[in-house]
Write a structure and sequence with these properties.
mainly alpha; 54% helix; elongated; CopG-like ribbon-helix-helix domain-containing protein
Length: 100
């Protein structure tokens, strides 16, 4: 659960989380941060944001393909149905007003 602290001026700070990383990943994160002139914390934030964005884009695509699959199934079922023709030409329908 993210914790929220107050700064010295009373405004709430952004939510904070603690993450335990293996040493190798921590070293790699430090190298990435220095290559991009960022703090380690900021680099972690950027990588998390990118990962979350990619995750939801992937989920949206899978939902989109699932909808397409349902549409294709519906279309196939309609195409399997036989075509029924009327036996005679349609007639014009006439409406008459009742005269009292």
């Amino acid at each position: 659960m993210a914790t929220r602290q107050n700064s010295t001026n009373g405004k709430p700070k952004s939510p904070r989380i603690q993450v335990v990383l293996p040493e190798l990943i921590c070293d790699q994160l430090t190298i990435l941060a220095s290559n991009e002139s960022r703090t380690v914390s900021n680099m972690a934030k950027v990588l998390i944001q990118e990962g979350i964005k990619k995750y939801f884009e992937k989920e949206d695509k899978s939902l989109f393909s699932e909808n397409n699959l349902n549409t294709d199934k519906f279309r196939d079922e309609l195409e399997k149905q036989s075509v029924k023709r009327f036996k005679r030409a349609s007639q014009r329908i006439r409406y008459y007003k009742k005269s009292d």
